[in-house]
Structure formats: structure tokens, C-alpha cells
Amino acid sequence: MWFSNVSFSLAFFYLVNILVKNRTQHKLPLAEEWKWRNVYVSWVHSLISATWTLLCVAIYPELFHGLIYHINYFTYLCITFATGYFVYDFLDLCFEGKVLTLWELTAHHIAVVSMFIYNVVTKAQIGFSLIALSVEVNSVFLHWRKLLQMEKTPFSSKHYVIIKYLNLATFIVFRGGPLTIITVSLFTLHEHVSLVYLVCVSISMVVMDIINIVLLYRFIKSDILRDLRPGTKKSSRAKHLNDRNGNVMDLEHDSN
């Protein structure tokens, strides 16, 4: 059952990719067109998975007391759906030759896919997977922020300011929180999992910690420190006016 569920999810996101491609093809340079598609598909996944995960936690709060052995069809299907997306996105990186240039994304997907596939095949640790998947609440705003940047939305606009602070707030809660829960649980529940699994999860956690530190640094540099630099708002407003007059606006965008 897990293979068919993962395959359905992979096919679903491939279809979303095609739909976005049909709308952006010939309207953007090739490199930008792929980036737009990739971020948009990721945003769609985040919206669905974040909502699904929050529903799982709200309906089945007992999973916090059964991170290893909790399982039902609703929560299990949520993890297989997310697994299908991560497999799809990893394959997309491979086919587009982005594996090395987007190393953070590659490392993230390898760490997540390896653990999620093991969990859905063995039908265990579903609670752990749901806790890990709750980071998608932050990813909703992370990808939203990137889409605004790609649309050349001024950094001083109300829309961008709201999203950037929601991104930072949910980053702390929905990335820091789950990583803390999983890390603590590795020590308290280590006797209930195999040594190999414990080592693999520990390595995955180290990878995730490094990636999140890099992301947080980029957010602070891009969204907080920029506002503290003298003349930044005036410069940003001037660039936006130039863009409205038909000139190309070249804003500093991070690579998230």
C-alpha cells in the first residue's frame, strides 16, 4: 500500500508542475521558469502537508505519547503523501542538474526520504514523522516569501513585511520545536529502536540542524539586518519605482 500511495503523491506533484509550467512557459527565462515552478510546487506541498499535519495533531493528540507505535490510516497516509513529494522534488533536482548547486535541499531530501520511507515501510515511528513534518507550517511562509521576492515585491511593502515576520516566528516555533522534541526523544526512547535506526536518525538530525542554522542566518541577514542598514528603504523604494517604469529590478535575494 505504501508504494501506491507514494507513487500517487509523486504523480500528483508532477501534474502540479506541468500545470505551472504551462502558465509560465515562454514568459520567463529558462532558469527562472524552473525556479518558479519548483518553489510553487513546494508551496502547494507545504499548504497541504501543514494543514494535514495540524489536523493529525488536533484529532490524535495521543500520538505525542506514542511517537514510535502510534499509527492509523489518516496519519499514515499523511506521511506517505509527504514522502511522495520529497521523492518527486529530489528527482526534479537530479533531472535539472541542481543537486550540487542546491546542496541544502539535496541534503534535506536525502535525510527526510531515507527516514520517511523506512518508517512507512515498517509502519513504525509515524508519530516521529508527523512531528518532523510539522516544519511544513513554517515552509508555507518560507516559500511564500520566496515567491514574493521572485515577483519583485518591495521589501518595504506591507505584504512582504507580514510574511517575513510570520516566516521568522513560525521558523522558531515549527522548526525549533520539532527538532527539540525529536532530539530529546532520541535519548528517552532509544531503547525502543534499533542501534542502526538511532544512528541514522541522529545523522539526519545533525544535517537538519546545520541546514536550519544556515536558513536562520540567511533570514536574519536578508530580512532583519537589511532594515538596519541606512538608506535601505529609500534604495528599495527607488528600485521598485524603476521596475514599474519598465526597468529590470535586481534585488538581493537569498538562495532559499
Describe the protein's architecture and organization.
The chain has one domain (2-244). Helices cover 77% and strands 0% of the residues. The chain has 9 helices and no strands. The protein has helices spanning 2-24, 30-59, 73-95, 103-122, 126-133, 136-150, 158-188, 195-228, 232-244. It starts with a helix and ends in a 12-residue tail after the last helix.
Distinctive features:
disordered C terminus, mainly alpha, globular, membrane, TLC-dom, 256 residues, TLC domain-containing protein, transmembrane helix
In terms of topology, how is this protein built?
Elements: H1 2-24, H2 30-59, H3 73-95, H4 103-122, H5 126-133, H6 136-150, H7 158-188, H8 195-228, H9 232-244
Helix pairs in contact: 1-2, 1-3, 2-3, 2-6, 3-4, 3-5, 4-8, 5-7, 6-7, 7-8
Membrane topology: Multi-pass membrane protein
Organism: Biomphalaria glabrata
Subcellular location: Membrane
Number of helices: 9
Write the element-wise H/E pattern from the N-terminal end onward.
Answer: HHHHHHHHH
Distance between the termini: 34 Å
How many strands, what sense, and barrel or not for the largest sheet?
A: none
Helical content class: over 70%
Give the class from helix and strand content and strand pairing.
mainly alpha
| Number of structurally distinct domains | 1
* Low-confidence blocks of residues: 238-256
Number of strands: 0
Rg, rounded, reads: 19 Å
Q: How big a fraction of the residues is strand?
A: under 5%
Mean pLDDT: 87
What overall form do the CA principal axes indicate? globular
